Amino acid sequence: MARGNASKRTGIAVLPTPAPELARHFDRLSLHRQKSTANSNSGCLTSRVDVIRKDSKVAGQLEGCLSRSKLYAFLQPPTGDLCGLRMLVADNTGLVVAAAGIRADGRLQNQLPMAKMLYPRDGILASYEDDAGNRLVGGLAYKITRAIMQPIEALSRGAKRIAAGHVEPQIPLPANNDDELGLLTRTFNSMMTKLRSNQLEIEQDRVRLGEKNQELQRANETLAQLSIPDGLTKLHNHRYFQDHLTREIKRVSRTQSSLALILLDIDDFKLLNDTHGHAAGDEVLVCLAAIMNDSARESDLIARYGGEEFVILMPNTDLAGAVHLAEKIRMAVESTRLIIGDTMKPVDITISLGVALFNGHRREFFAEADKALYQAKAAGKNCVIIPGSESVELG
Fold first, then answer.
1. CA of 78: how far to CAs of 100, 139, 145, 265, 359, in Å?
2. pLDDT band at residue 311 using 50, 70 and 90 as cut-offs
3. 61 and 187 assigned to the same domain
4. Most confident of 37-41, 81-85, 201-205, 307-311
5. Which residues contact 282 (CB under 8 A, 6 or more apart)?
6. How many domains does one find in the chain?
7. Residue that finishes a domain, picked among 15, 41, 66
8. Per residue in 85-142, pLDDT tens?
9. What is the DSSP letter of 232?
């Protein structure tokens, strides 16, 4: 668009040749060098836009007088059914600046009661009298536009909230919810419901996962405790034996297979400690652990039960098999001569053993083995005893 020479008196340049696309909508165009906020006195409906320079500063204003013929064409009723409708365009003070319809030209420059038009009693139409006392009814087109735009704006806000990670309550349906806007709003609300449901399920899964992780951590801590062997003999400890016994009892109760137990104790171990010292006693315990590991099967569990007392749990073993292993270990210990300490003198040790067979009761199972061990001690030590019998010697 070409600019004319600026008038030094008015600071306005006239645009003699408007661009074709502007000429269709404006009767006159002018360029103000300074930004103006004054109302136009050109006698027409005008529109102003700022002219922005490359440095983002306002260079002036371009003002156009709207084409009356173009405006009237827009204001004409779209169908014959509305031929009696009068369309008026007013400024913010209520002054009519454009009109179309029956005897519309007579309303130009009239003043509309904007207070009544903006706040009608029934919320839709305003009833008032003109200067001649004529009873008139009017309404504002912006109310129709607002009724359409409100749900769209609500949907837009909802979409932005979702994008930010927030799940808001449902959007109220527009007054007329049978059209496309109503369908869009219902679809949006359905999506919001599903999002809230999915969000709740994710939160519940997160809580359950946290609980499972805590349980797994506790189980790992328990397993770590169970897996710690006896520090001296490297055999399983008392706690591990008890948990393993629980699992074996559940297994044999289900399979009806046999389960045997050997409880053994070093004879006169206190006297050995008092005579040769606790270091010598420790050497004896380590030696006994090695003999039991060499004698037992891989499926047998050997544990240090406490002090100089040991236990061997034998799955799938009857009473005769358990007695055979007990006697095998007793003879191996009896035939072993130990050199302990600095004296270089050999030391002979013996053990006493009690054997029991599981009969369906855990407490009785261990009590019978303990009773048999007590009987072995009372019978002179260095022997194998089963409950209710004398010492057992196998050739």
1. 12, 17, 17, 112, 102
2. very high
3. no
4. 307-311
5. 232
6. 4
7. 66
8. 667 777 767 787 777 666 777 777 777 776 666 655 555 555 666 666 665 655 555 5
9. T
3-state SS assignment for residue 233: coil
Classify residue 395: in a domain, yes or no: no
Of the candidates 389, 241, 269, the one whose C-alpha atom is nearest the C-alpha of residue 333 is 269
Q: Which amino acid is at 127?
A: S
Query: Could you report how far apart the first and last alpha carbons of the chain are, in Å?
Result: 125
Distance CA 386, CA 368 (A): 8
Q: Which two tokens stand for residue 175?
A: 């007054």
Q: How far is CA 390 from CA 141, 371, 393, in A?
A: 114, 12, 10
- The closest alpha carbon to 138, from 105, 104, 109, belongs to 104
Q: Are residues 272 and 313 in the same domain?
A: yes
Q: What range defines the domain where residue 36 resides?
A: 1-66
Check residue 300 and give its pLDDT: 95
Prediction pTM value: 0.45
Find how far residue 34's CA is from the centre of its chain: 59
201 with 242, same domain: the answer is no
Of the three residues 45, 66, 87, the one that is the final residue of a domain is 66
- 372: domain CATH number? 3.30.70.270
Q: Cα separation of 380 and 115, whole Å?
A: 120
